[in-house]
Amino acid sequence: MPKKNQTLGEFIIENQSEFQYSSGELSRLINSIRLAAKVVNHEVNKAGLVDILGTAGETNIQGEDQQKLDVYANEVFIKTLTNREIVCGIASEEEDDFITIKGRNEKNDNKYIVLIDPLDGSSNIDVNVSVGTIFSIYRRVTASGTPVTMEDFLQPGNLQVAAGYIVYGTSTMIVYSTGHGVNGFTLNPAIGTYYLSHPNMRFPETGNIYSVNEGNYIHFPQGVKNYIKYCQQEEGDRPYTSRYIGSLVSDFHRNMIKGGIYIYPNTSKDPEGKLRLLYECNPIAYIAEQAGAKASNGFMRILDIKPTQLHQRVPFFCGSKLMVEKAEEFMKNAE
Ligand code: AHM
Ligand code: MG
């Protein structure tokens, strides 16, 4: 049983035996993400000082080149994950191709694949709005001792062994699951320690928040248009309230606590949708299901989609179970 106020370090050690293939490696992998998240958090928190320290792409007062934060976060996560002998391959939203990590003595015998969106919603940084990191972990499917191949990365989301996100918000939190429910840890920045603040998180079965970029309404499929009208109708607990931050992690995190649905549909402009299946939708869908919620492309379960490309996009409907089912009903009826 997770104990409130336990540190993330203690929690990882105590719950290690729950992992399906328990050898301590997955624990060490989560630990390295915890470390990278602290480093990125420190840098994200300084973003408001750009006028003093120099903006991205410029040279600062000490003559150092300032990096864009998403590029910086990408480097920190890749470096930290590469340094431990656990990961054999990384794919990142910031990289065109996957990265092969040969590991100790170039033996290619590390077990895990990590897919990561190092800094999601980064256009929100300049305006002091929350951003996040999203990660997804799989075991490799190709033989140990050989370099990873695309096959290792194109696994359906239902084969994830762990997934999570970090939200750099009013406080910084890491929320993750290894298939035994979802737990959230809050960073105490004064001492650099994460404490278990949200044990066993559960998504409310229904809610009254809908989160969608309604500015794109005209381009939405008819089913989504009809569902939005339904959300706005006066009946029972409706109209629902509309909340859209434009940072997936923050919108999802709020909805998981309060109850709600997040939708990023396909549009006439983006027929595949905007969000990426591997770096954004699969890990968030995994957390959602672990917390009792649902994630769909409007017609089928996100986690059952067999990916065909690293940077594949997908329409995304995610949140309180009854709300996602209702939205799916509207999608089906509009076909
Ligand atoms: P990004 O990966 O380029 O940051 O884009 C993903 C973000 C999500 O966090 C957010 O939910 C969505 O894009 C917002 O998009 P829009 O501004 O089109 O509503
Ligand atoms: Mg992103």
From TrEMBL:
Its main location: cytoplasm. Mg(2+) 1 binds at residues 93, 117, 119. InterPro entries: FBPase_C_dom, FBPase_class-1, FBPase_N, FBPtase, Fructose_bisphosphatase_AS. Substrate binds at residues 120-123, 213, 244, 274. Its EC number is 3.1.3.11. Residues 7-199 form the Fructose-1-6-bisphosphatase class I N-terminal domain. Residues 204-332 form the Fructose-1-6-bisphosphatase class 1 C-terminal domain. Pathway: Carbohydrate biosynthesis; Calvin cycle. GO terms for biological process: fructose 1,6-bisphosphate metabolic process; fructose 6-phosphate metabolic process; fructose metabolic process; gluconeogenesis; sucrose biosynthetic process. It holds the Pfam family FBPase. Binds 2 magnesium ions per subunit. The keyword Metal-binding applies. PANTHER family: FRUCTOSE-1,6-BISPHOSPHATASE-RELATED, SEDOHEPTULOSE-1,7-BISPHOSPHATASE, CHLOROPLASTIC. Belongs to the FBPase class 1 family. NCBIfam families: PRK09293.1-1, PRK09293.1-3. This is Fructose-1,6-bisphosphatase class 1. It comes from Ulvibacter antarcticus. The lineage of its organism: Bacteria, Pseudomonadati, Bacteroidota, Flavobacteriia, Flavobacteriales. The gene is fbp.
